[in-house]
Amino acid sequence: MEFKDYYKILNVPRDADENTIKRAYRELAKKYHPDLNPGNKAAEEKFREINEAYEVLSDPQKRAKYDQLGENWEELSQRVKYTGPEAPFGFEFDLGNAPFSEFFRVFFGNGGFDIPGFTQSRTRRIRRGEDINAALEISLEEAFRGSTRTIEYSLGGKRRTLEVKIPPGIEPGTKIRLKGQGYPSPSGGQPGDLFLEVKIAPHPYFQLKGKDIYLEVPITLTEAVLGAKIEIPSLKGKVILNIPPQTQNGTTFRLKGLGLPPSGDQYVKVNVVLPQDLTPEEMKLFGELKKIEKTNPRKHLGV
């Protein structure tokens, strides 16, 4: 006679909380699901035990009754006699040497059963299939414009191909739900869903923060001093940035509406690059400039 230790089957402690039990069940159910182990009778039996254990431990009332057996399960398994207000349906029954699992089918109302002089049927709880969570990496350009991706994945030994629509302006961490594309239900219910968590691949020169795009652009000393109109990249294509005269190094400009739609902007930080490999003529011009310039950048230091 075998006692079904549901805690051992799910590999959780007896004081495990609801989330721990659910997490353990999902991991084991995925591992031993018949669709992932075709023809494996041992896996099918394990899958049945996992579902039986979860059926009891996930229900607070059933779990409380199950826990009443405690350490006396060997004694109780020889001959079970339950009566009184806590007995199922308020009547007395005696299972003698019936297998212990048969007792649990009666005790927890799992399915229908017959007792002389009394017939009771129960509706089996139908559970939906498990969800699948996966990552979907897209480019920053796809996040900006939106796109359609074709994905392939394996489920139950079979390849599936799906088209996924990516809406414009999608942010990293967003989950796209594909209804009914998860694991099938072990009890004939609705299949689970497939959830794709969006990840955006690093970009060579853009940085994404929320819906805003950040870009650093080098400019020359003369462009910073005299001002200029320079061409820079954006997710919409090349645009013109107007740099006013006497722009300081590190100045940041905002280009409205050039971030992720509908509300993102593009921020452009300019870095002034000092000239190198100057010709004698250029050095002479800088010498003349030095004689006449009046700016003292260290004035605030008292020097």
SSE arrangement, N to C = HHHHHEEHEEEHEEEEEEHEEEEH
What is the highest CATH level, the class of the largest domain? Mainly Alpha
- Silhouette: elongated
Report the sheet with the most strands, covering strand number, pairing sense and barrel closure.
4 strands, mixed
> How many structural domains are formed by the residues?
3
Which architecture of the largest domain would the CATH scheme give at its second level? Orthogonal Bundle
Beta-strand share of residues: 25-35%
Which residues sit in consecutive blocks of at least 5 with pLDDT less than 50? 77-100, 110-123
**Nearest-integer average pLDDT:** 81
Helix content: 25-40%
CATH topology type of the largest domain: Helix Hairpins
Q: Assign the CATH superfamily of the largest domain.
A: DnaJ domain
**What is the count of DSSP helices, taking H or I runs of 4+ residues?**
9
Tally the beta strands.
Answer: 15
Main sheet: strand order: 10-11-15-14
Quick overview of this protein structure:
The protein is an alpha+beta fold and 303 residues long. The chain is built from 9 helices and 15 strands.
Topology:
Blueprint: H1 6-10, H2 18-32, H3 41-57, H4 60-67, H5 73-78, E1 81-82, E2 93-94, H6 100-107, E3 113-115, E4 118-120, E5 132-138, H7 140-145, E6 147-155, E7 158-166, E8 175-178, E9 194-200, E10 207-209, E11 212-220, H8 221-226, E12 228-234, E13 237-243, E14 252-255, E15 266-273, H9 280-292
Parallel strand pairs: 5-9, 11-15
Antiparallel strand pairs: 1-2, 3-4, 6-7, 8-9, 10-11, 12-13, 14-15
Helix pairs in contact: 2-3
